[in-house]
Amino acid sequence: MGQVEATTERTVKGRPEDVYAALADYRGTRAGLLPEQFSEYEVREGGVGAGTLVHWRLQATSKRVRDCLLDVTEPMAGQLVETDRNSTMVTTWTVTPAGEGRSRVVVTSTWTGASGVGGFFERTFAPKGLGRIYDALLDKLAAKVEQ
């Protein structure tokens, strides 16, 4: 079993604090940013940044659905970490300045993949599929903060 990693990044028009606030607002803005692969979204505790407990189902492929229950932490300014209680998946969102009125958003998910042939395919294809899902989310984020 090896570590699998998927990273997507985007530069958006918007101040870092506004972009970060949109991502950290699980009770409000975040739900509207999720593409169709997410379902059963529910904030169970908190709702803004650290201390939030949020649930969703992520349908990465027609056959692969992850039931996620995520604890949100903020280990440093500009960074949200979502740790799934139901798996080894950890997703880190990092927002940094990218010039005047712009922000760089990087999202990285890591998890322990399967072994054998299944693990080979997971390491090969899962990062691309998750990257497409995060691209769709970042499109919605950009549209929201660029209004």
From TrEMBL:
The transmembrane residues are: none
What InterPro entries does the database record attribute to this sequence?
A: Polyketide_cyclase/dehydratase, START-like_dom_sf, UCP017371
Q: Which SUPFAM superfamilies match?
A: Bet v1-like
Give the residues annotated as coiled coil: none
* Gene3D superfamilies noted in UniProt: 3.30.530.20
Q: What name does the UniProt record give this protein?
A: SRPBCC family protein
The scientific name of the source species is: Streptomyces palmae
